[in-house]
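Example for tutorial group B:
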């Protein structure tokens, strides 16, 4: 089982327009909804790839109740800690004419210290059954910047590898911890947010020397660079016409975790993650792809050592 952590869950809405112009009354041609947040999307990706996943994190208010209901309908296991604050809404606006998507994200409500304590208990409970842990996303107010470092430490001490999709101060706190994630991924924008103008090769060398097993940076349609002691590899995804790229990075994390759980080498992990990301981008809702689609995208992914 893969335990995915979604501290900033979301009720995801998608409005699809043939085209739109700001400043007018806009009527969508289609409306879709699902439970979301990086950890939930990663868990959905794992399930679609034939694995077992459990979502752990926070959900509160009317939106939180709806998220739990939607996850139950998907048969996606969860142990989300209930909060008094209402879970945020993330709204994706799709413009079919321009093939551009805009993501509107509500601010996160604050979680209490008691709620954080309940979450930690739930995490510890589920960790006993986990083979891999996925940590992903931003933190809601009320969580300390060290919480991912604390979760990483707990998991590694229990013999469970951690795959982290985090950036900025929370990631740097995790790097400074004695126990390190086995895999760290981010996109190129998050890389700059975390490491500034430092050269990628210098950061790779530093992180691998510190104990990180795999470090991956995605560049969207331009591919991904992944490094380990096996070397540095460039993955080129298949050429697709994306429908909605929201959730593609989360699907990549789910693909990484599933491949790691299956004992794949670095190339296998890269293929699984890239394939899942591309397959997700072909769907209107995050990580709602099929295993066949992900396998097809994985097979069409080009990989070369650099």
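The residue assignment follows.
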């Amino acid at each position: 089982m893969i335990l995915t952590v979604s501290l900033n869950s979301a009720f995801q809405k998608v409005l699809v327009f043939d085209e739109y112009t700001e400043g007018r009354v806009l009527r969508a041609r289609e409306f879709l909804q699902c439970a979301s947040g990086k950890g939930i999307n990663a868990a959905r990706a794992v399930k679609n790839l034939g694995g077992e996943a459990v979502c752990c994190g926070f959900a509160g208010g009317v939106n939180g109740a709806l998220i739990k209901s939607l996850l139950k309908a998907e048969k996606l296991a969860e142990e989300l800690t209930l909060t008094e604050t209402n879970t945020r809404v993330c709204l994706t606006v799709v413009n079919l004419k321009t093939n551009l998507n805009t993501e509107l994200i509500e601010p996160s409500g604050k979680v209490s210290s008691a709620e954080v304590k309940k979450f930690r208990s739930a995490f510890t409970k589920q960790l006993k059954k986990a083979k891999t842990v996925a940590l992903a996303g931003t933190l809601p107010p009320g969580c300390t910047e060290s919480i991912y470092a604390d979760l990483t430490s707990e998991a590694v001490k229990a013999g469970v590898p951690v795959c982290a999709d985090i950036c900025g101060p929370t990631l740097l706190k995790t790097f400074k911890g004695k126990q390190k994630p086995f895999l760290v991924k981010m996109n190129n924008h998050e890389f700059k947010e975390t490491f500034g103008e430092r050269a990628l090769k210098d950061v790779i060398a530093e992180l691998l020397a510190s104990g990180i097993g795999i470090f991956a940076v995605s560049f969207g349609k331009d591919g991904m660079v992944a490094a380990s002691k096996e070397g540095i590899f460039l993955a080129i995804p298949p050429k697709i016409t994306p429908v909605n790229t929201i959730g593609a990075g989360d699907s990549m994390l789910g693909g990484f975790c599933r491949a790691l759980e299956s004992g794949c080498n670095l190339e296998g992990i890269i293929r699984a993650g890239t394939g899942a990301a591309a397959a997700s981008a072909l769907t209107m809702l995050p990580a709602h792809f099929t295993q066949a689609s992900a396998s097809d995208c994985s097979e069409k992914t080009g990989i070369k050592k650099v």
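Residues 2-305 form a domain with the UDP-N-acetylmuramoyl-L-alanine:D-glutamate ligase fold (CATH 3.40.1190.20). Compare this with the pattern of hydrophobic and polar residues in the output above.
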